Amino acid sequence: MYKPSHRKSDFIERSILSALAFLKDATLSEEYANRRGFLQSLDPRIKTISFLAFLVTSISLKSAVLISALYGLCLILVIFSAIPVGYFLMRTLLFIPLFSLCIVLPTLFSAVTPGEPLWTFHLFGINAIITRQGLGGAVLFVVRIATSVSLVVLLSLTTRHSELLKVLRFLGVPQIFVLTVSMCYRYLYLFATMVENIFTAIKSRVGVVSQQQQGRQIVAWNIANTWNRTTQMSEEVYMAMLSRGYTGEPRLLSEFHAMPRDWAWLFCALIACAGLLYRGHTL
Question: Which of the listed residues 49, 151, 164, 242 has the most CB atoms within 10 Å of its CB?
Answer without folding.
Answer: 151
